[in-house]
Amino acid sequence: MTSAVGAAAQGLVRLPVWRARFVLAALLLAFAALLARALYLQALRTDFLQERGDARYSRVLEMPSTRGRILDRNGEALAVSTPVKSIWAIPSDIALKSAEKRKLAALLAMPERELDKKLGAARDFVYLKRQVPPEAAEAIAQLRLGGIYESPEYRRYYPAGEVTAHLIGFTGVDDGGQEGVELAHQDTLGGKPGSRRVIKDRLGRVVEDVQSIRAAQDGKDLVLSIDSKIQSLAYSALKGAVEQAHAKAGSLIAIDVRTGEVLALANVPSFNPNNRTRLTGAQLRNRVITDLFEPGSTLKPFTVALALESGKVTPQTVVATAPGRMTLAHYTIRDVHPAAALTVAQILQKSSNVGAAKLALALPREAMYGLFQRVGFGAAPQLGFPGAAAGRLRPYRTWQPVEQATMAYGHGISLSLIQLARAYSIFATDGELVPLTLVKSATPASGEKIISADTARAVRAMLEAAVQPGGTGPRARIMGWRVAGKTGTAHKQENGSYAPDKYLASFVGLAPASAPRVVIAVAIDEPGGRAYYGGSVAAPVFAQVMQGALRLLGVPHDAPLEPVNLPGEGDEAREST
Amino acid sequence: MAKLNLLLLAVLVACALGLVTSQHKARKLFSELDRERTRARELDIEYGRLQLEASTWGLHSRVERIALGTLGLRAPDPRRVRLIARDPGR
Questions:
Q1: Closest partner residue to A229 among B45, B51, B60, by Cβ?
Q2: Does the CA dihedral A289-A292-A298-A303 come out positive or negative?
Q3: CA-to-CA distance for A28 and A30, rounded, in angstroms?
Q4: Shortest alpha-carbon distance between residue A556 and chain B (Å)
């Protein structure tokens, strides 16, 4: 009792117990509420909140990638991508005053009516113009128009323009290859854009790399085997020849036979890859690779090589060609220069159809087919180039004697210029067929052995005689180097029969003859003038380009430096295939 | 015991401050690195443009036109050109 009395004495009053309990319960409840809220935020809504938090400082950046450059063998740029802008709009957000519209149309270089049409489209997104130069895009941004935006893009430029147009090809607006090397090497040239997550500070500077979502991969540069000096020379020589001969088209290919590298590849007509409005299919075609033709006399060296390989003839063997024509199953083979008898070497020199046919008929058709097939006729060349044509070489079982005879001088078989040029490499080397490449390679090519070294040398010597005065191609000669080659003047096929007045003039040759380095093949399609022979239309182009190429490659001279006497009228043999 | 705790506390605070400083430094360096990377990219683009320009100015047809026209140059007569074999030792 003393304590109670003491407490009362100190003025204390005993409170009811429920009040304390009530406060305690209230506090507990408050804590429970907090806990529940915390649980809700931390456990249930955490993803959303985390995201909102990140959004304050973390950003995903797009990492652009550039397309690889295309360079020539000396490192000169043939195709380069540079950034441009594309201008797009959200039509519903646009309210333009007429002055603003006029300005915008002027900066976009499009008529106001077209702009109206684009802005009137019932879409949420419309490109006003793609690939706008950076300066124009900057000026448009300065107008500060609502609803108009720009985004970065790349545009490909081709400084060499029409000179390399067919070879390099071009890309579409999305920077993907559409033609030529651009398409063939799309995998290595094309870059892959990436993205990464970063932290930015309040000034917008990137302060930390959080995560690389996808690494950006720039496209790799591609170094071609093309020598842009030879290419330029080839294009201008070809263009001049096509104009002078009033021809429909022309094509040329130059090959370094030591490495199999293509040094030049030109086509006329061409186009400007930097401005591709109003293009026709004829301009776009890479004739060297995609166009097939009946080669005519340029095929005779293969017949002769096969005859020599068989051991039945030597270059001095005499073949009776009188009276300058030969009839086989209602078909008459004719010579332009009828002769009673010609040696095998003279058959090539004078381009005798009868002689070549006789040589072929003495050979088994399997052997002829085998040679044609092994030098790559009838199979698309392994270049990785889009649209490479295979040509037509019918199986030998279906050959009639007359067909075998006409094939000896290049009719009844079709091939592309690149196949023909490559096949000639067996005469430029000691009988080896070199694999071709459009990419620069340092290593000498090792080819497949097709004919013996003796045969290759013998045919080379005969081809050298064919460009001497009295042969069909004296205009192919150049000062300082010995040249060997063969002309061709084939009637073009039209609707299944040979057109009497449409020709394809060609020349395939190699130099220097003592140690061949370069093979050049030229084809001029439908020369319209009076001179339509391969020796008068195509051979001068060959000479011009060959001389330049040998000089640029620094090939030592193998002939005395005396001016070449060009033949006068009648000094030159002609041919009809 | 209390002394040890105080000491540990001091070490902890020092470490924390160190962490903050190094983080700050790292971010500064990184932002510099990023700036330089952007610059490298811009320079690369600039290089591409210059390459393009060089190719355009050095177009063979243009060089030929100027050499033949403005400068009046001519290819020498091949008879007056002497070819020298490259010294294989060099």
A1: B60
A2: positive
A3: 5
A4: 7
Check: pTM over 0.90? Answer yes or no: no
Q: How far is the C-alpha of A410 from the C-alpha of A423, rounded, in Å?
A: 13
Q: Which of A159, A199, A206 sits opposite B56 (nearest CB)?
A: A159
- Asked if A200 contacts B26 with a C-beta cutoff of 8 angstroms, the reply is no
Q: Does B58 touch chain A (CB under 8 A)?
A: yes
Q: Yes or no: is domain A228-553 CATH 3.60.40.10?
A: no
Counted across chains A and B, CB pairs separated by less than 8 A come out at 67
How do the domains of chain A map onto residue ranges? 62-91+123-223, 228-553
CATH class of A62-91+123-223: alpha beta
Q: Burial, A131: exposed, middle or buried (Cβ in 10 Å; 0-12, 13-18, 19+)?
A: middle
pLDDT tens-digit profile of A522-548? 999 999 878 888 888 999 999 999 999
Which residues on B lie below 8 Å from A206 (Cβ)?
Answer: 30-31, 34
- Which of A375, A238, A234 has its CA nearest to residue A299? A375
Residue-wise pLDDT for A340-365, tens only, equals 888 999 998 888 999 999 999 999 98
Give ipTM to 2 decimals. Answer: 0.74
A144 with A96: CB under 8 angstroms?
no
- Round to the nearest angstrom and report the end-to-end CA distance of chain A: 144
Residue A343's φ and ψ, nearest 5 degrees, are -75, 165
Active site residues of A: 297
